[in-house]
């Protein structure tokens, strides 16, 4: 039986070298305000949805242009991403970006590649109030009680396991639940360490050429065809 490969690729700290949300907080918000929220997210005392919402509420909407210019100038795309996007396109692999990041920086950063990315899932921002408000158009379904914000597992479950070979690529806590239900995982940093601890099989990556290599092994190793 042949399955089509579908990739669920994280954005912050995966496609970009660093986490853009943390970078924005470091620059525009005093550490004593944002750091406890981030610590609570990693300690799982605050959900991602509540935490990311609270973080952006620390930024006045009037700083929209400043924040946007900062993140667009600052974000660095990880090495090999362009080749990776082309590879997926040529191999007829479905490439989805699934991110808990925010539309106002994700869409402009991915614009040069957008034509070959099948779909981008992320959160939205509203700058019309006094402070930045985050809107979550993709909440958790009845199978997920993590309160993700943008629920990666809900999207992953939307793809029929009989038809698709599902690969998660990611770096951090937002990718962990997806990694648990994927057919294969390509990981770095926190996600790699946590997969190691939990005994989840994964391939390590430092750049997207590593991801292309990993994909090539999945294509040959499984019965998967495109
Ligand atoms: Mg990430
Ligand atoms: Zn969820």
UniProtKB/TrEMBL annotation:
Presence of the UniProt keyword Acyltransferase in the record: no
EC identifiers of the protein: 3.1.3.87
Catalysed reactions, as listed in the record: 2-hydroxy-5-methylsulfanyl-3-oxopent-1-enyl phosphate + H2O = 1,2-dihydroxy-5-(methylsulfanyl)pent-1-en-3-one + phosphate
InterPro entries linked: HAD-like_hydrolase_phosphatase (IPR050849), HAD-like_sf (IPR036412), HAD-SF_hydro_IB_MtnX (IPR017718), HAD_hydro_PyrdxlP_Pase-like (IPR006384), HAD_sf (IPR023214)
Highest taxon, organism lineage: Bacteria
One BP term from GO: L-methionine salvage from methylthioadenosine
Protein name, per record: 2-hydroxy-3-keto-5-methylthiopentenyl-1-phosphate phosphatase
Gene label: mtnX
């Amino acid at each position: 039986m042949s399955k089509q490969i579908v990739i669920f690729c994280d954005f912050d700290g995966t496609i970009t070298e660093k986490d853009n949300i943390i970078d924005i907080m470091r620059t525009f918000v005093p550490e004593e305000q944002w750091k406890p929220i981030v610590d609570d997210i990693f300690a799982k005392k605050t959900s991602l949805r509540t935490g990311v919402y609270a973080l952006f509420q620390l930024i006045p909407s009037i700083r929209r242009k400043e924040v946007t210019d900062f993140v667009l100038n600052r974000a660095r795309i990880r090495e090999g991403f362009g080749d990776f996007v082309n590879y997926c396109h040529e191999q007829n692999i479905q490439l989805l970006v699934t991110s808990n990041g925010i539309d106002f920086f994700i869409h402009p950063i991915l614009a040069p590649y957008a034509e070959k990315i099948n779909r981008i899932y992320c959160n939205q921002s509203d700058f019309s109030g006094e402070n930045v408000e985050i809107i979550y158009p993709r909440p958790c379904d009845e199978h997920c009680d993590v309160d993700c914000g943008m629920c990666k597992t809900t999207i992953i479950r939307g793809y029929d396991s009989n038809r698709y070979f599902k690969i998660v690529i990611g770096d951090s806590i937002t990718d962990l639940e997806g990694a648990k239900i994927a057919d294969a995982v390509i990981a770095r940093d926190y996600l790699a360490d946590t997969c190691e601890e939990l005994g989840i099989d994964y391939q390590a990556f430092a750049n997207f050429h590593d991801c292309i290599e990993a994909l090539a092994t999945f294509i040959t190793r499984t019965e998967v065809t495109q």
